[in-house]
Amino acid sequence: MTAARLALFDLDHTLLPLDSDYQWADFLARTGRAGDPDEARARNEDLMARYNRGELTAEQSAEFMLGLLAAHTPFDLAAWHEEYMAEVIRPSISLAAVRLVQDHLHAGDLCAVVTATNHFVTAPIARAFGVPHLIATVPEYVAGRYTGRIAGTPSFKEGKVVRVHEWLRDMGLDLADFSETFFYSDSINDVPLLDVVSRPVATNPSPALRDIAQTRGWQVLELFAHMEDAKS
């Protein structure tokens, strides 16, 4: 028996109030693990600016982000990721985001995180939220090392739609099999997947996505408003 509903969650600036890819690169730079730290920070900032404008390609991101994985052994990367989780990610996980995920899980919905950020960075984060499935960009791994290249279709823009269909097909399912399909996202880059679900939810939306949501009558959800109130 399949779940009656499907709930998909973007990760960065949706379940998290930060970008896990950007923060991982920043973490490596400031801990001396990303080559020239000033150059790494400059490239990181440029990629984020292009992403926010909707101009970044998966290949442009991979050249830098997956190159950081290729430069080190999996043993070292795993140890550093544990530090990163403790220092950066876990303190940023909000109760509101956890409750959103738990509400869907407790309802028996089929749940997955669908993110452009690579699988190495995001797998422990998805586990921290208790989400059982992860659709992420897959970094190629050959002979015990990351190569710096993408394996398969990147989970980015239209690629997210492709990857979700592939994932469901592998389970013998289709979007039409669910009574409701949710996708929570903050980004204009996710409009392709928001367009194909029955319940698109603009979550902590960027200004560009907020405009689209208002025009199309999509639900708008502010998960982190209480965090901003606490700072003021």
UniProtKB/TrEMBL annotation:
Keyword annotations of the record: Hydrolase, Magnesium, Metal-binding
Reaction(s) this enzyme catalyzes, per UniProt: L-histidinol phosphate + H2O = L-histidinol + phosphate
EC number annotated for this UniProt entry: 3.1.3.15
SUPFAM superfamilies per UniProt: HAD-like (SSF56784)
Pathway listed: Amino-acid biosynthesis; L-histidine biosynthesis; L-histidine from 5-phospho-alpha-D-ribose 1-diphosphate: step 8/9
Enzyme class, first EC level, given as a word: hydrolase
Protein origin, superkingdom: Bacteria
GO molecular function, one term: histidinol-phosphatase activity
Keyword Nucleus appears in the UniProt entry: no
Pfam families, alphabetized: HAD (PF12710)
Purpose: Catalyzes the dephosphorylation of histidinol-phosphate to histidinol, the direct precursor of histidine.
Family, as annotated: Belongs to the HAD-like hydrolase superfamily. SerB family.
Protein name listed in UniProt: Histidinol-phosphatase
Lineage: Bacteria, Pseudomonadati, Pseudomonadota, Betaproteobacteria, Burkholderiales
